[in-house]
Design a protein that fits this description.
Blueprint (H helix, E strand, L loop, with lengths): L33 H4 L15 E2 L6 H9 L42 H4 L1 H5 L8 E8 L2 H9 L15 E8 L3 E2 H7 L4 H10 L7 H4 L5 E3 L5 E7 L11 E7 L2 H4 L8 H17 L3 E7 L8 H13 L9 H9 L12 H5 L4 E5 L4 H9 L3 E5 L12 H10 L10 H6 L8
Parallel strand pairs: 1-5, 7-8, 7-9, 9-10
Antiparallel strand pairs: 2-3, 3-6, 4-5, 6-8
Helix pairs in contact: 6-7, 11-12
């Protein structure tokens, strides 16, 4: 590739506010009127409009920087939002107006094209952080279940070929740091310092701009799949089934059998479809938290360590091997997870398709009632995933028939690395 030569431009540091110029569009998190709350503006070209740290697109912002450096993208490009409005409306709900209820996403993120139409027309670079569209999804397991008669074809939710009609929402993370810190029981200054130091100083404003309280973190977001009428979700007279699913590329996409992720995801989709066909709504929340938010490299290292340890892959050593490598069992935490449920106006979940104690506790602590917890059927657990499932049940996962004992855990073993 021929090197492209361009004039060297000076770097303008914007990490310190001007003593004379206040932020043009201050954010007042939790205000009922979105105009008073203010738009989230992560513009990189108009410093006086910028009112948050970080930039849009989460982890993909690095690719944007690469596209600009390669000369493929004009750094001054502003998105044309014509015809991009949501296909379904969600909210607003009372939960949107409680500053501590939704702290990791912008509840108004899908509506900025309408709410801030005048500001956008005036040249303010305000971008959506939520997009809502419709689609059809086709999964072999669902098609097979339709063929077997376990799921009926209704022409509205499930088509004759087994495809499912869904509404789906993509959500970028938007963190209101004072409330995020409070959710974790720490000072905002402590959170800012950790974010600054442990990202290699990626965002100096965390330390230098105490006037900015919103961060667009460089992490993956989440996708929500709705089965049935979206408007029925907050209706307490309608049944609601939900699965909160954290990304597992190896299983979800490639069918790895060392865990229950894809089988449980499929089971969750089936339950959502059936609920929608009964007149309610089913929701899958898919979070980008690969490998318990430890990442796929760490996850694969743990797999190797588990299968090479003395005695092979054992349920009684399941979490220990993760701690040896990552220093912690799980970095998802789940404290921020219920925010998306409050965005949907949810007050009660009739059927939670999850055995996770961490998810259940986070949801109920946030004020949402859970009526029933739905386990993965025993016959859907792959043989090599028994190690994971038994270890999790012993650690506090929902277990309808009792948790395994220490002696039981010693007997549960997986296959070897080369099998």
């Amino acid at each position: 590739m021929t090197e492209k030569k361009r004039a060297v431009k000076p770097i303008v540091l914007t990490s310190h506010p001007s003593a004379r110029t206040p932020v043009s569009y201050p954010i007042q998190w939790g205000e009922r009127d979105p105009k008073r709350r203010g738009p989230i503006i992560g513009t990189l070209t108009t410093p006086e409009h910028r009112n948050c740290m970080g930039t849009h697109s989460g982890a993909y912002s690095v690719y944007r920087a690469l596209a600009v450096a390669a000369g493929s993208l004009d750094p001054l490009h502003v998105p044309d939002l014509t015809n991009t409005a949501p296909v379904d409306r969600i909210g607003p709900f009372d939960s949107w107006y409680e500053p501590k209820r939704i702290v990791s996403m912008d509840p108004w993120g899908a509506d900025v094209g309408e709410v801030f139409r005048d500001e956008i027309k005036a040249g303010v670079n305000i971008q959506p952080t939520i997009a809502i569209t419709r689609a059809h999804i086709t999964m072999p397991e669902i098609v097979e279940e339709v063929r077997r008669g376990g799921i009926s074809v209704d022409g509205e939710i499930v088509g004759a070929n087994g495809d499912c009609k869904v509404t789906k929402a993509a959500i970028e993370p938007v963190w209101f740091l004072p409330a995020v810190a409070e959710r974790f029981g720490i000072a905002e200054s402590e959170l800012r310092r950790a974010l600054f130091e442990h990202t290699g100083g990626m965002f100096p404003e965390l330390i230098t701009r105490s006037d900015l309280h919103v961060l667009l973190p460089p992490i993956g977001g989440q996708t929500v799949y709705f089965f049935g009428e979206v408007a029925s979700i907050p209706d307490l007279t309608k049944e609601l089934t939900i699965r909160i699913h954290d990304e597992c590329n190896g299983s979800d996409v490639f069918g790895s059998d060392i865990c229950t992720c894809r089988p449980y995801l499929i089971h969750g989709i089936e339950e959502c479809v059936k609920t929608a066909q009964r007149g309610g709504c089913g929701v899958i929340v898919y979070n980008r938290k690969e490998g318990r938010a430890l990442g796929e490299v760490t996850k694969f290292l743990v797999y190797n360590a588990r299968k090479r340890q003395e005695g092979g892959d054992r349920a009684d050593m399941y979490f220990h091997r993760t701690e040896c490598i990552a220093g912690v069992q799980d970095m998802r935490f789940q404290e921020l997870m219920p925010d998306v449920l409050h965005w949907m106006g949810i007050k009660r979940i009739d059927r939670l398709v999850s055995m996770s104690d961490m998810k259940y506790n986070a949801i109920t602590r946030s004020g949402i009632e859970v009526v029933e917890r739905v386990s993965i059927p025993d016959d859907r657990i792959p043989a090599d995933a028994r190690v994971e499932m038994d270890a999790k049940k012993a650690a506090g996962y929902f277990a309808e028939h009792g948790a395994p004992t220490e002696e039981d855990l010693k007997k549960t073993k997986g296959r070897g690395l080369l099998e």
